[in-house]
Design brief:
about 500 residues, single chain, 5-stranded mixed β-sheet, 3 domains, binds glycyl-adenosine-5'-phosphate, BirA Bifunctional Protein, domain 2, Rossmann fold, Herpes Virus-1, 7-stranded mixed β-sheet
């Protein structure tokens, strides 16, 4: 199945099984805004818990905060967001549609890459086992031609973006003959900058309302609380402040479902270090974060680092953790060495001294910062994409199963009476009453047992137990494993110890 089709299936699966709904669905939705349903919210909470505990529980020197979405407007002046948090936009005069110029060009780069991959796939089919992919890529004329075009375009595009040369971005779009997907024409306006922050007003107009912004990142809430936390928590450098919360960006090109949203959630940690030690800490945090991702068991080959060549003016190192989505390797998390830029800017704009007094050296300095910043929704999407499987079973039947990491699954155990009579529902409820204090259980008695297993497979429940007539005699149930579909007879007393360890967050955290 083409990856595009797989992705469409995942999106509709998310809706059908209560993971993600379009926001304001009965009013036909609101662009790039989504709601999480009854299963989605559980998965999302588990992701957040996994992150929070890996930061705050496992590190003595990291504490959490929860800062407000609304902040003093000068914060965004100091951070540079008012002046520089922009996307380059271009309009098509015929369709009146607006696009991000950088995205149009990136799509064109991707088209060359697709052409190369098609050639490789064709050759693989033709040559079978004897196919030497590396040699084919190095020698095939069509592959080389497309590679050369791709590299030249990519270089020109990177140079234009680094210099924020808007005229050059437009020229690239014209030279590459990129047409509007709606009108099909190349009747483009000039490229302009567009600020991504949402504005609103605080206070009544009579009092003189002032404009404030919905935060486009949670990080600034941490920076402006640096002094509060350092002093009240008696924190010693190096130390970190973690936060999970909503962020808002007026994304113009909102695509790929929950990959790019206008309202989303971030999990950010700012780690304050002594100047001069930041690059060592940057490497440490890159490795720590990669280990966090890989502990989920999705395979190391599905992750890669993308080290930034061109850095923001305040950064001295930056790298993304990318994950293989159905639409290619995409950024899920950013790890940035932000120097002392943010704290120094806030010191300058607030007039406050924002420093750290080192009791060992009797010196004061502005700490440098390593930031780890991951989107909850992107993480959610990567997990759904990797876990969704359509499995061919013996007899030709297909089952849809979400092979979610057990610790993140919305429901850990489904409790199913074989029939709705003969005291089986009562026995099933009795078992559930005991286990529900230890992990998330669901009771289901509707439809055949086969259908109920399929329903639990589709929402990623790692274990089901079936209560049958024999249970009333021997106090044993059938325990079914989602992934292997194997069933074993186990005693009711042993259920908690058999399941709890495998589905607990602790088991996942212990892998770190
Ligand atoms: N404080 C640094 C910062 O915000 P970023 O690279 O702009 O850096 C960090 O964002 C992470 O937030 C990204 O790696 C991504 O996972 C998530 N993210 C950013 N914009 C997003 C959007 N529009 N929708 C969903 N997630 C987004």
């Amino acid at each position: 199945m083409a990856q595009e089709d797989v992705f469409k299936k995942i999106v509709s699966h998310c809706k059908e099984y209560g993971f993600v709904f379009p926001s304001s669905d009965i009013y036909d939705g609101l662009g790039a805004v989504y709601d999480y349903g009854q299963n989605g919210v559980e998965l999302k909470n588990n992701i957040k818990q996994y992150w929070w505990q890996s930061m705050v529980l496992l590190h003595e020197n990291i504490v959490g905060i929860d800062s407000a979405v609304f902040m003093h407007p000068t914060i965004w002046k100091a951070s540079g967001h008012v002046d520089a948090f922009n996307d380059p936009l271009i309009d098509n005069r015929d369709s009146k549609k607006r696009y991000r110029a950088d995205v149009l060009i990136e799509d064109q780069v991707a088209k060359y890459e697709e052409k190369i991959e098609k050639e490789v796939a064709k050759a693989r089919k033709r040559f079978g086992e004897a196919f030497d992919e590396a040699q084919f890529r190095a020698t095939n004329a069509r592959v080389l031609e497309n590679q050369q075009k791709r590299d030249a375009l990519h270089q020109r595009y990177s140079d234009a973006m680094n210099a924020m040369n808007l005229e050059e971005l437009k020229q690239i779009i014209l030279d590459e003959e990129i047409a509007c997907p709606i009108s099909g024409t190349r009747n483009w306006t000039d490229v302009r900058q567009f600020n991504l922050m949402f504005k609103t007003e605080v206070g009544s107009t009579a009092d003189g309302a002032s404009t404030i912004y919905l935060r486009p990142e949670t990080a600034q809430g941490i920076f402006v609380n640096y002094l509060n936390v350092q002093k009240t928590g008696r924190m010693k450098v190096p130390f970190g402040i973690a936060q999970i919360g909503k962020a808002f960006r007026n994304e113009i090109v909102a695509r790929q479902f929950i990959f790019r949203m206008r309202e989303f959630e971030q999990m950010e940690m700012q780690f304050f270090v002594k100047p001069g030690t930041e690059l060592e800490w940057f490497e440490t945090w890159k490795n720590t974060r990669m280990a966090w991702h890989q502990a989920l068991g999705f395979g190391a080959e599905n992750y890669r680092f993308h080290d930034h060549e061109k850095l923001a003016h305040y950064a001295n190192a930056a790298s993304d953790v990318e994950f293989r989505m159905p639409f290619g390797f995409k950024e899920v998390e950013g790890i940035h060495s932000r120097t002392n830029f943010d704290l120094s800017q806030h010191a300058k704009f607030s007039g406050r001294k924002i420093e750290y007094f080192d009791p060992e050296t009797n010196e004061s300095y502005t700490p440098y910062v390593i930031e780890t910043s991951i989107g909850v929704d992107r993480m959610f999407l990567s997990i759904m994409c990797h876990s969704y499987e359509e499995e061919k079973l013996e007899g030709g039947e297909t089952r849809v199963v979400l092979k979610l990491p057990a610790a993140l699954a919305p429901t850990k155990l489904a409790v199913l009476p074989l029939v709705k009579k003969d005291g089986l529902p009562e026995k099933a409820r009795e078992i559930m009453q005991e286990l529900k204090f230890h992990f998330n259980c669901k009771y289901d008695e509707k439809d055949s047992i086969g259908k109920r297993y399929r329903r639990q497979d589709a929402v990623g429940t790692p274990y089901c137990i079936t209560v049958d007539h024999q249970t009333l005699q021997d106090n044993c149930v059938t325990l079914r494993n989602r992934d292997t579909m194997q069933q074993e007879r186990v005693s009711v007393e042993s259920l908690r110890s058999l399941i709890e360890d495998k589905v607990s967050l602790t088991s996942l955290l212990k892998k770190l």
